[in-house]
Amino acid sequence: MQTTQHVLFERSEMKDRHLVRKKIREHIADKAKLPILIFPEGTCINNTSVMMFKKGSFEVGGTIHPVAIKYDPRFGDAFWNSTKYSMMTYVFKVMTSWAIVCNVWYLPPMVKEEEEDAVHFANRVKTVIAARAGMSVLPWDGGLKRKKVKESFKEEQQKKYCQIV
Where is each Phospholipid/glycerol acyltransferase domain found (predicted)? Predict the structure, then answer.
């Protein structure tokens, strides 16, 4: 990683977030540098949905070149369910699978519209990616895999349900 131009940070550190935003803006401004590859979901899930994108990737400006990626599980499943399999079991399953097949679609470039904020831009890009890969759009992030749901989020969903009923 030292030979390339990785930008590493600790998501929980607010100082790191500001430094990363600055480094990415500088990188984008230098036309001699290669584009940055960012995975705005921050994690992987089970290949059926696209989760909430982290807005930081969409705050820095520049052109977004969306890529939709979907694994084909017919010959081997690339998804690691860490609650079901240990790392060693997962590695064994991947290494002994017939093949790991992945469909990749390069979508048209997108830029933030004048009236859009970073969250709306991220959601627009996410929707385009999900539609191309035939996946559903989820309004929450990957943290729900490892953390308990916030009470405020539960209450919000309960209120929405009550309005429907």
Answer: 1-70
